[in-house]
Amino acid sequence: MLMLKLAFRNILRNKRRTVLTMLSMFGGYFLLVISLSVQFGSYEQVIDFFTRDSTGHAQITAENYLDRPSLYKTVPATSTFYQQLLAQANVVSATPRIVSGALAYGVSKSFPVQVIGIDVVKEADISFLVDKVKVGRYLRAEADAEGYFESLIGAAAARQLGLSIGDELILISQGADGSVANDLFRVAGIVGATEGLEARNVYLPLSAAQSFFVLPEQAHYWAVLTADYHDGPELAEQLNAWLEPSAGLEASSWQVVSKEFYQTMSADIEGGYVSYFVIVLLVCIGVLNTVLMSVMERTGEFGVLKAIGTSPRRLFFLIVIETLLLATLSCLLGLLTVLPVNAYLVNVGFTLPDPMEVSGVVMDHMKGLWDLKVFVEPALIIIGSAALISIFPALRAARIVPVDAMRSL
Amino acid sequence: MKLPILLAIPLVFSLFTFAGSSHADTLADAKAIELLEKIDNLYQQENSHAVMTMEIVTADFSRSMTLESWALGLDYSLVRILEPKKEAGVSTLKREKNMWNFLPKINKVIKVPPSMMMGSWMGSDFTNDDLMREGSWVDAYDVVLSETDSLYTLDLTAKATTVTVWGAMQIVVTKDNLLPIRQTYFDEDGQAMREMRFSAIQTFGDITLPTVMELVPLNKPGNKTQVTYNSMEFDIDLESDFFTLQNLKKRR
Amino acid sequence: MSLTWTLAVRNILRNKRRSFLTILLISMTLAILIFTDGYIKAMTDVMVRSATRLYPGDAQIHNVSYLAERDGEKTITDVDQQINSLMAEPLVASYSLRALDFGMVSSSANNIAVQVVGVDADLEASVSKLKLSMIRGDYLDNAGSELQILLGGPLADLLEVDLGDRLVVSVNNYQSDDIDQRLFRVSGIFEMKSKFFDEGLVFIQLPQAQAMMGIGQGIHEIAFNLTDESLSGVKDLALWSRLATPQTVAEGWTTLMPDLAAILALTGYSLLIIGTILFVVATLGVINAMFMSIYERTYEFGVILAIGTRRTSVFNLILIEGFVLCLLALVLGAALGAGVTLWVGAIGIDYGSMDVSGVALAEILRPELRLLQFTELPFAVLVMTLVACLYPAIHAARIVPAKALHKSL
Fold first, then answer.
1. Which chain A residues have a beta carbon less than 8 Å from that of C289?
2. Is the same domain home to A1 and A110?
3. What is the complex's ipTM, to 2 decimals?
């Protein structure tokens, strides 16, 4: 306790120096928090968007479907199955999808497309497909008066085939029973940009896709959402336990479904740590300077202390504690100041000069994140480095030879 | 034999008579070529009209179709699905080197693009390309004849420059009626890749031939395609103007 | 003025430790900036090269209507002229002519849709890594048999073929509007470690492809590499307009592969962020150090101000001290930065087979030095230092002699 009091008093003694030292550490903490917040915030954005929009947090597929997708590897898409799925703990929502290839014909040309059968209602709640409709409108699930179902087509498909709203789209493919799948659909809307990920897709209502591909009551996968994308793996495990008895079905987390995306994100995050290391290094140098200064200044004082019997160890710890105290105070102050700033970042974010697209996700804002680690990690790093950096000056203080030291008084 | 239309070439021997070859044949070679020709001419008629049943079995589905076909030589053919009802009316027209499909459900005629040419025809083990191929197999393969008491075996080896994926073929023929029972396709390493089995010999008018043909791909266990000719007529009244896009679209 | 300079230098030398630490701080800032810049540049280059030099080339020339639908009929017909224009450009290092279209390749076991590419063996080897990716058999030989065909290992497995086996390739012949089928024998197998290439491309001799496609002497694509690959990323490079003709267009990879461009824009952005953070932290450190030095000399300043030194002189003195420190720091920093960069560059950072957004980092990363690291960056650091010194300098100039003289050290 005495040590702590002494440390405190020492700090308060030279206010300007204290303030400046704290400023370095405060600045470092503040910046680290902001960087972490924005970086993790944008990852969250991207991953959240991506998983909601395409893969879901976990997927239920037939075994081996992910390795070698095939028209024939299906999952049940009945309402019973859906009810049961929803009844599972942690399942927030789910939507079934059919995916297969087909040849699309417009006026005269043909074009290979990917056909995606969607549950019109569920899909609108879960993914962002509705927002991607650029021309025309979203799908209706029912056929129109003449018995034609609607479709959404990607911008590249629309352009290649020369199709616009209200036109006829012909799809030809192979049904699951081997027959020639062929049908006409009305174009209700055009989706995305010509270079986007959806550019070569055709979206059909699920029932239309099921009869087209002859997959009654089936789909190729269920995209399942839980509260947060982080829980993807747990969700998958849980679903696997539930699916155990049914032959041939498995659940996989989004990290498994989109391995490449996941790896890219992970690599990016790791890269970020390099810059933090750098910041911390600079903070340390600044801190070293001041702490050394303060030790040097008080050489005489320490000499006296030692002469009257203070152990070297005590002096050592005194310095270290002083620095730790400064660091902690700086971080606390930093925390207080950064909270409102982070609030702004999380809610408003800052607009990027050029909107960016990462893996098909357009980001025009970088947002922050509320997360314990964003505040705690930098504090630990700063305090830890401060402690480390103070060792050198502390050692010097401990080694002071009283006689020499007192000469400078 | 060139089976009219659908089951055309790969199952088939040369159309052209082997005249004018200049290499010195041994007696055995000459006999081999003669036999080849004879069998070749078996299905080769000027024109034909047939109704057949095709059964397709794969690991993922099985189905059965009834087809009606008309053919004029090698250049013109029209095939129409009669059953199942869902696909009744779906037709394929071949005129020389072009192919079209008619899909009655959407009332459209689609020209088969190159990318679909090698795809399977109607889900069977035959490819669109199988229907299109032509060529003189006698020119394309070297043939050697061997025999047992009841069977002739023709071993065909592809010449180095022949445009085919097969390295060799073997055709087994019964001696007494000179009709094939089995045709096996080998890749170049000598591994049998697919086999065609012939049975159920019947006579239509003047012509006697096997009416059941079963194609089994040996690398896809469980798959097979079987064609049974229910009826066949030859030398009917058929001209090239029958084979038009108009007729393709007619629902009968 | 020169008195001020002398004084400044003397002051710096007075407290060597502090001066050293301050110099260290500033020099580290520069060193880190240099290294980070070198690292990011190398990363960018490796990504670009991995993407472009594996196969696509830094830039490509096509018929203006070709890219929209990859229509095999839209060829480049004035090939010789194009070649002449290319060779006349000093920036162009090498080029390759390609005739390509979609087709089918059949073996006795399987039929697969692929992209059939006809190339001139020697020209292609100067642009892409095809020749270096051979794992079995031989690369194409212009003088060799016309039955040569190269395919990827995975594709060979799917077709169940090996060297010497028969393959029949079918493509659309635009002249006869027919299918052209030819026999080939597998002459070589490659592995480019990219699923897209290894499963989707086959290579044959250019004249064969031209004959099969019925395009005469025409080609579909001229891929070329620049002497400086980083230039290929410049969207409005004068080269593109120089090479363009009414019939054809030249584009760099940023236009041809916009996804990759987006990712790289992101990394450039990162450098900016890191730089800003570095500067802020370093500035704080410098201010800290300068203040300490002033603080020590408060009495001294009090004296000289009392005897009539002008305030501006004091102001200048501090600034000059900072300036001199900075100069020394810049030299040290440049040396440090260059040293570390070269050292890491010599060792190289091997990311193994990590994928960053779909582009495998196939090469070893070697941070590199470049001019701006030694001109722009040091200048920025100098400005930063001077700005940092402003506050302390102003403070020093405003010292009230009477108060100052009260302090004794």
1. 286, 289
2. no
3. 0.71
Portion of chain B with pLDDT greater than 70, in percent? 74
pLDDT tens digit sequence for A39-65 = 777 777 778 888 888 888 989 998 888
Residue where a domain terminates, one of A216, A247, A280:
A216
| Residue C72 touches partner A, C-beta closer than 8 Å | no
Q: Between chains, do A180 and B87 touch, taking CB under 8 Å as contact?
A: yes
Chain C nearest-CA distance from A210, in A, is 26
The per-residue pLDDT for A29 is 84
Residues 195-254 of A with CB under 8 A from B: none
Pick the residue from chain B with its C-alpha nearest to A74. Answer: B60
- Across the interface, do A263 and C355 touch by the CB < 8 Å criterion? yes
Q: Which domain holds residue A2?
A: 1-51+261-407
Evaluate whether A192 touches A198 at the Cβ level (below 8 Å).
yes
Q: What is the mean pLDDT of residues A240-251?
A: 82
Beta strands at A350-358 and A201-205: parallel, antiparallel or unpaired: unpaired
Which secondary structure element, helix H or strand E, spans residue C66, and what is its range? Answer: helix C66-69
Does residue A166 form part of some domain?
yes
| b/e per residue B35-65 (b: at least 16 CB within 10 A) | bbbebbebbbbebbbbbbbbebbbeeeebeb
End-of-domain residue from the set A216, A244, A269: A216
Q: Are residues A145 and A265 in the same domain?
A: no
Does residue A269 or residue A173 have the better pLDDT? A173
Class of domain B13-65+125-247: mainly beta
Query: Pick the residue with more confidence: B126 or A211?
Result: A211
Locate the domains of chain B by residue range. 13-65+125-247
User: Does residue A15 share a domain with residue A116?
Assistant: no
List all residues of chain C from 351 to 370 with a beta carbon under 8 Å from chain A.
354-358
| Domain presence at residue A111 | yes
Q: How far apart are CA B131 and CA B77, in angstroms?
A: 9
Q: How much is the pLDDT for B206?
A: 77
Claim to verify: residue A19 and residue A132 sit in the same structural domain: no
Residues of chain C under the 70 pLDDT cut: 1, 258-260, 262-271, 350-363, 407-409
B116: which strand partners?
A: none
**Do A267 and A372 belong together in one domain?**
yes
Residues A284 and A182 placed together within one structural domain of the fold? no
- Chain A residue numbers with beta carbons less than 8 Å from the beta carbon of B105 are 182-183
- Is A169 part of a structural domain of the chain? yes
- Nearest-Cα distance to chain A for C340, in Å, is 14
Q: What are the φ/ψ torsions at residue C253 (nearest 5 degrees)?
A: -65, -25
For residue A178, the distance in angstroms to the closest alpha carbon of chain B comes to 5
Nearest to B61 among A103, A176, A180 (CB): A176
Percent of chain A predicted with pLDDT > 70? 90
Tokens found for residue A350: 């800052």
A319 residue type, one letter: I
Task: Tell me the range of A154-163, A215-224, A369-378, B84-93 where mean pLDDT is highest.
Answer: A215-224
Looking at the complex, report in whole angstroms how far the Cα of residue B138 sits from the nearest Cα belonging to chain A: 35
pTM for this model (two decimals): 0.73
Residue A99 and residue A46 share a domain:
no
Helix, strand, coil tally for chain B in percent (to 5): 20, 45, 40
Question: pLDDT higher for A324 or A108?
Answer: A324
Question: Choosing among C179, C212, C213, which should be mutated to test the B contact, i.e. which has the most B CBs within 10 A?
Answer: C179
Both tokens assigned to C288:
């800290």
Q: Which helix (H) or strand (E) holds C21?
A: helix C16-52
A388 belongs to a structural domain: yes
Which residue among A112, A176, A179 places its CB closest to the CB of B86?
Answer: A179
* Total domains in the fold of chain A: 2
